[in-house]
């Protein structure tokens, strides 16, 4: 049995009925995994690489990690917030420094770190064109660090960007917390949120991550259901 520890922000976090239908990627990922593998979802809304560490959340993971576990590391949305010194990290500065701390936590425990770039924001202009560079230099900074430290990187940012372009403005609404007033009891005024996911979106993008694990092969592909490993496209299209 392997355990996947997931350090991340609200796009991954566990939700309750209070925020329904919002669903994090970490909630959906177990659907693609063999039953014996467990996702320990430590993702928390609003956290950056910095605030997650400052609040002792990485230390908590370090205390629990054991040899053969995995540490998935997915940040960027909140590191970008220059107006908040408690969270902001420059992409080629503290962002990379902090990510290396997560990597070292995994390696010190003989666990396997995996870097995952942030989910692309669903931002289309009036002509139906997806906005470029919604995460600036952060995905590139993560990928550069992964190459330098020989850590696998799943480029969810680019893969989700491509999916949004292919799917288009209107059809991609089904994946995000973007819906009219009165559709859900706990959001009577509706929601116009192009960052956080509904259940359908969490399933979709967790499937993207699972597909990339399959491409990595070896111990990463071994996490996946045999059915998914054989034919991933049929399960997420």
Structural class: alpha/beta
Low-confidence stretches: none
Q: Please compute the radius of gyration using only Cα atoms.
A: 17 Å
Mean pLDDT: 95
Order of helices and strands: EHEHHEHEHEHEEHHHH
Helix content class: 25-40%
**What is the terminal-to-terminal distance?**
29 Å
How would you portray this structure in words?
With 237 residues, this protein is of the alpha/beta class. The protein has helices at 25-28, 49-54, 57-64, 94-108, 138-149, 156-167, 199-216, 218-221, 226-230, 232-236; strands spanning 3-8, 38-41, 70-74, 112-116, 153-154, 176-179, 191-197. The strands form two sheets. A five-stranded parallel beta sheet has the order 2-1-3-4-5. A two-stranded antiparallel ribbon has the order 6-7. α1 links the parallel β1 and β2 (38-41). α4 (94-108) crosses α5 (138-149).
List the helices and strands and how they pair.
Blueprint: E1 3-8, H1 25-28, E2 38-41, H2 49-54, H3 57-64, E3 70-74, H4 94-108, E4 112-116, H5 138-149, E5 153-154, H6 156-167, E6 176-179, E7 191-197, H7 199-216, H8 218-221, H9 226-230, H10 232-236
Parallel strand pairs: 1-2, 1-3, 3-4, 4-5
Antiparallel strand pairs: 6-7
What keyword list fits this structure?
single chain; alpha/beta; five-stranded parallel beta sheet; about 240 residues; two-stranded antiparallel sheet; 10 helices
Brief account:
The chain is α/β, with parallel strands linked by helices and 237 residues long. Helices cover 38% and strands 14% of the residues. It has ten helices and seven strands.
